[in-house]
Amino acid sequence: MKKIEVVAGIIFYKDRILCCQRKTNKYPYLSEKWEFPGGKLEEGETREKALIREIDEELEMEIKDLKFALTVVHQYEDFQLTMHTYFAYSQKPKMKLNDHKDTVWATLEELDKFDWAAADIPIVEYIQNKL
User: Fold this and answer.
1) CA atoms within 13 A on the CB side of 130
2) Which secondary structure element, helix H or strand E, spans residue 56, and what is its range?
3) Cα separation, 60 vs 100, whole angstroms
């Protein structure tokens, strides 16, 4: 079974949290699901640097004040995902969608209305219990 290690950001702008919708893809269990943005680590890269790079590549957004939140290990049908998640902050709400179908700056109360990717559900629960 393939194992993939990624980072993800719980990105805040004021009192809102960034939620990103995946584009249609070959995995029906991930296609158009909502997620916290991030991506794969490159060789020799720290998790924090990977998250900063991925957010810049995917959203052309700068983030700061990264703080580790939790690690989620989830078994999908085709691979095992280990996702290291960080709280982060953005100074500006504007972004460019280079890798996602849609984004929403949601309140804590609105997080339940999204159709989250399975690996992101524990992150939503963590945020709701922590904040």
Assistant:
1) 11
2) helix 47-59
3) 12
Cβ pair 98, 53 in contact under 8 A: no
Q: In whole angstroms, what separates CA 71 from the centre of its chain?
A: 12
Task: State the Cα–Cα distance between residues 21 and 69, nearest whole angstrom.
Answer: 21
Q: Is the pTM of this model over 0.85?
A: yes
What does the buried/exposed string (b/e) look like for 110-121 if buried means 16 or more CB atoms within 10 Å of the residue's CB? ebeebebbebbe
Q: How many CA atoms lie within 13 A of 72 on its CB side?
A: 24
Q: List the pLDDT tens digit at each of the 131 positions of the chain.
A: 899 999 999 999 999 999 999 999 988 999 999 999 999 999 999 999 999 999 999 999 999 999 999 999 999 999 999 999 999 999 999 999 999 999 999 999 999 999 999 999 999 999 999 87
